Amino acid sequence: MRQFNNRIWVGLRLLGLAAGLLAARPAGAQSAAAPAFAVVPLGVRGGLDESNLSAYLVAPAGSAAYVCLDAGSLRTGLEKALASRALAGPGPEAVLRQQVCAYLLSHAHLDHVAGLLLNAPDDSSKPIYGLASCLKTLQNDYFNWRAWPNFGNGGAAPALGKYQLLPLAPGPALGIPGTALRVRAFPLSHGPGYESAAFLLQSGPDYLLYLGDTGADELEHSQHLRTLWQAVAPLVQAGQLRGIFLETSYPNEQPETQLFGHLTPRRLWQELGTLGQLAGPEALRRVPLIITHRKPPANQEAAIARQLAAGNTLGMKLVYPVQGQRLGL
Q1: What is the pTM of this model?
Q2: Would you say 154 and 165 are in contact if contact means Cβ atoms under 8 Å apart?
């Protein structure tokens, strides 16, 4: 009996020790144990392959109420996601109509909106969010009955009103109807005189940062990225930022006069070095970095990956999303 009681006592001591260790884990380590966001990439590339262009579904973990970050490719990505069981539903049309609750468009270049345009006839009514400059292009240059029917809620008559174009201004976060997400927008510079956007998504205490196409501040003669880093640095320090989606379109060999408002591995690490200075490199190391918008051909994509790895002095975890394969962040 005494031996049995001793075993119970030892077991309780071990349980107490384990509980103490769990309680002592830093906030960043705790958050890494259970994903806060589900991400389904519908398209990951930055050009040429029209079936695999920038588009990412995001929802709080356990939810099927998604927002779509950019919409370069939709149907092919939905088909692949259903085939891999990253999504559940009777078919791509049903998922698009019932589970995609809103679009967040970083800018209106075709490689970020073509999927939305082509699938608009079969889509359900929902909001499209973006900076005013992006929505103006979408309404006036695409939804105008010349390039495409007017599925928007303004512009050339008759406006079909399927989509409600809702401008986001830099400022407080806004709730996205039909989802448990909130969003805050930040302007970015994507070449001379052209505006792109970053979106900071919030689900409870957790955040996810998605950047559309952007050039480096130094080359863009801008402070947009520094302003963004200053805003998210406290979230990095608190272990609340679950991931950063950041483009790397070209390898380092691309002449900087021909980047057209994009990043190379060298320029990406330069920018994230600024964030590391603001938030602390140890805190930033815990944040996964999801690499987006690599431009084909395949040897160029491979060169970008090699150069990113070689320049990763911050020790960040690099994630290369695959079309149709779910990510937990």
Answers
A1: 0.90
A2: yes
